[in-house]
Amino acid sequence: MADVFSINLVVSGIYLSMPLILAAFGGLLSERSGVINMALEGEMLFGAFSAVAFTWWLGSPWLGLLAALMTGALIGAIHAWLSVTLRANQIVAATAINLIASGLTAALIETVWGKPGVSPSVRKFGIVHIPLAGHLPFLGRIVERLTVLDWAGLLLAPIVWIVLFRTSFGLRLRSCGEGPEAAASVGVAVISVRYRAVILSGMLAAAGGAYLSLAQVGVFQRNITGGRGYLALAAMIFGKWRPVPVLGACLLFGLADAFQFRAQVAGVNLPHDLLLALPYLVALVALATFVGRASAPAAIGKHFIKD
Amino acid sequence: MTLDAVSADLAAGAGAPAPAVRLRGISKSYRGVRANDAIDLDLRAGSVHGLLGENGAGKSTLVKILFGLIQPDAGTIEVAGTLRRWRSPRDALAAGIGMVQQHFSLIADFSVAENLVLGAEPRRHGLLDRRRAEREVQALADRYGFRLDASRRVGELAVGARQRVEILKALHRGASTLILDEPTAALAPQEVDELFGVVAELRAQGCTIVLITHKLAEIVAMCDDVTVLRDGAVVGERTIAAHEREPGSAARDALEAELAIAMVGRSLPDPPSRQHSAGVTVLELRGVADGHGLGPLDLVVRSGEIVGVAGVEGNGQTELIEAIVGVRRVRAGRIELDGTDVSRWSVRRRLAAGLAHIAEDRHAGAVALDMPLVDNCVLGSHDRPPFTRQRVRLVRREMTRFTREVIAHHQVRVPSLDATVGQLSGGNQQKLVVGREVSRAPRLLVAAQPTRGLDVGATAFVHGELAALRAAGCAVLLVSLDLTEVMALSDRIVVMRDGAIAGEARAEDTDVIQLGSWMTGAGG
Ligand SMILES: Nc1ncnc2c1ncn2[C@@H]1O[C@H](COP(=O)(O)OP(=O)(O)OP(=O)(O)O)[C@@H](O)[C@H]1O
Ligand SMILES: [Mg+2]
Asked: Residues lining ligand 2 (ion), CB within 5 A?
């Protein structure tokens, strides 16, 4: 049992929270602009699939990541078109995207690789060595095992924070989520800002998917995300739409996931399915107990009609 | 000078400087209702121009046209001698015309400075220059003598301060003509004073101001010119001379009477007289506290009596109302209605037991703006006969009949019976709510700011309604920020401070000074 709580737990907790972080920050950008983003799950799946498919075709995980980002942008654009331009119900539009993602990527495995269920292994992202990092106490063991995407993910919180709160783009983005009419009355192009936010959101969620498939396992398998998009959404809500708490929530859920893995390996005497559900249970309890009111952007989910 | 003589004067334009804004022949109709009917209006540069008129007279419509929010059917707008046409408020703003609407357009989550610079943010090294934004906004506020902290979040500000932010926002964007549509309706008396200080300062710095209010005293105190509208047309305009502003002077009384008659087309009824026949106890609060700011507090309201609750806004009045109505949980004490403890009862059960409630904020607490009149009119009694039969079936015929009755009896101006409440003017929405609650023939009426946004005629009418309910043996709890209203209507007055009762007196045994000292906790 002692082995369950070790430094490795922290290390793998960080790994496992990385896809959540990427996707949750995507969701944050979209929702802060006033568009509910339930489509994170679908966007992650599409990202995970294109990352593996293009790495397999082109031989480079870099090109795979690039393809994932482009796919994410495309899906984000479709999502924005549905939710912003057509003013469809944002929950329904996103659910449609998720369903299509799940069906289409599963079907494409067979089309592309000729057998159902799982792709062949592809090259994973290399580990980036930072000289002498191994000698740092505690942190060294984490730092020396980070991939490029890990770095991107860890830097995301401060970057998103700066963009949201220290740039004029961020101010306008938030104004679209808090008071689109007021924003439009002073010349903010609400529709265009929301498009950009939702497309960025799709790209980040796709990067989260690419992390799952390219950095962690090196294959694509059907429904590889297994609800992590929703978990990211929960982390975003639990973090009250604020970058630093959202990061914290992702790490918490990641740790719960890591704990569950290690507990299985260590043979803890709990039903397998219950252990698997642990991060989701943690999310559920977190949301039910800690969420205060009135922390969501004031105009979230409200369509904007340009006159 | 009579109104007509002045109109002739103004028409001749005797040697006066060119007006800052000149409206000619402005007309606007909504499905048969002539909201504005060939209105001419001149705003002199650097003056405060009052707009008076009954509820639905067309004041808001006129200023919305001036601000480009709605398009007139006919008529022209001239600014500084040039003919203009707005496609949107942004065009109007570019020409120097700004407006503070009855409902604010600020982002609560943003700071004052962020609200003001949004759309034209100062930048440094590609980042938002927040310090410069705050410095500039603070400088602007200080220049006009506004008491404001540019770095505060707007959501934390009181109504009066938010209004100053709105005004500042218009000024920041270059407005030199400023429209204020009922700016005082939601303000506490001290905030009104502060607002008028701001208006005076703006005028001194050369701004032109349009002020809409239903309070004659405010018009007389603040305005240089006043225009009276009735049924969408101008029925009088005149300038106000300095000697007519003297409080208590005969000239001032004459002016107020003249304006009131021009507005309503008749003189106003006398205020209802008091009677002294309080009967059995209807509402009794004993040691009521909500565990936050409210209480512990005792209060009794008897049948046939109006008890007025006075106090500075935010001293627990809202919480008290919520506790009595049943939307705030009471942690200690008893609330008795006709001798039964109802403190654990649902709102619905209390309503069924004879409670009626005129909500403080009608949009949040009384009507659904997008729903038809008829549906709104039966809200609260919708689940009972005659509107519901066999406990489930809504009887539309009865609902319509009742609505017609309320509208006719309370003189609510409606475009048509199938209109939504949102299509009524603000004052008419309020009349509908008052009519609905009064028509229930309640045992207890909780009336919170019952005349907010009402014109003088409608205010007198509502006061008459409350007095009639009292005569019929209803117990009335009147909560109002307007001390004059509380003093004119109540048999007994209680003053709230910090969630508790700071003083209580019979209306005829007290005066403004004593009430004021209870309200502020000074001396007394
Ligand atoms: N969108 C609309 N649809 C239909 N009728 C309207 C609409 N807006 C205003 N009206 C009608 O036009 C008339 C004038 O309304 P307006 O809001 O200008 O009155 P007001 O003088 O501002 O009244 P108040 O003092 O009550 O605010 C009213 O009869 C109102 O019912
Ligand atoms: Mg109005």
From this structure: B 60, 426
